[in-house]
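TODO from last week: model CubicO group peptidase, beta-lactamase class C family.
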Amino acid sequence: MKLTYYLIIIITVLNSCSRNSKEITETETHQKELYFPEINSVYWESTTTSILNWNTNNLIPLLDFLEEKNTKSFMILHKGKIVLEEYMNDHSNTKSWYWGSAGKTLTTAVTGIAQDEGLIHIEQKVSNYLGTGWTSATTAQENLITCKHLLSMNSGLDDRLGDGVSPDNLQYLTDAGSRWAYHNVYVKLQDVIASASNQEWSKYFNTKLRDKIGMTGQWTNLGDLSVYWSNTRSMARFGLLIAAQGKWGDTQIIPQDFLSEATNTSQNINKAYGYMWWLNGKDSYHLPASQIEFNGTLIPNAPDDMYAALGKNDQKIYIVPSKDLVIIRMGEAADEDNFALSNFDNDLWAKINALID
């Protein structure tokens, strides 16, 4: 009996090792298949819809739809190569546009980098880095708020008091972790990183992320908030970095395990939200400025494994691992002004599916 027991243990361990080895090999193979443009070069390798056997007849309807919906730029990458790069409505490849809340994911990425360097830990309370009094809550209430709560949008602070993040605008509503609410308080993570690294947020960001993957662009202060502006290819470079699980070529820039956390459900209230990444394929979701739980998936027409950075007035980074796609959209609001998600997402994915399926 003991011999049988030990044999079962050995076989289980060997199977586990074999499975883990297979997963590592598949990841490495995928990495080798990805194309990364040179950091200091304008050249970016491309492919075509015909080579990919996409439904080329549906390309013009997609582009017409995008132009009608106030789009300024649109890109599709497949395994890192450019399939489509289109500019319209008085925009060009040299012009910058704002990321809106899609840029929240830049803060997420740099938070992962700062944690990997030992400067911060997301499970630590924000007051450890900023001191007490960064909100209007009592010290006991404030000390409940960790950096992870800022990443997950469940700080418990009142989201109904406007966009400011001064202490007067950051008032206690409920204990951290008990309520999900889309809130600009996330920007305090930039202050956390600036304090921990003893340098300006933008300098740390540029050194640790932007310059390492050949992005351009800059942060522009709008009141208490910093909004990122760049050209479309810079947004595409960031999307490619995330799709590559934080690697650029052979260099791991964002820790892979942190990105895995960031692109999975981060709390038990809004299943469709990670660390400032929106997640498709969940059975329910919440939206900004609402406490209603909606049943169903976030964007029904999009693949279930798609996750996205969504910004004000339809700034988009869609990442689809199962199809090796990174998709970028910049522009004015397609229809009405919105914080992140809109009907445009689902309508756009109907057009994309008609092209790629």
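Done. The longest strand covers residues 71-78.
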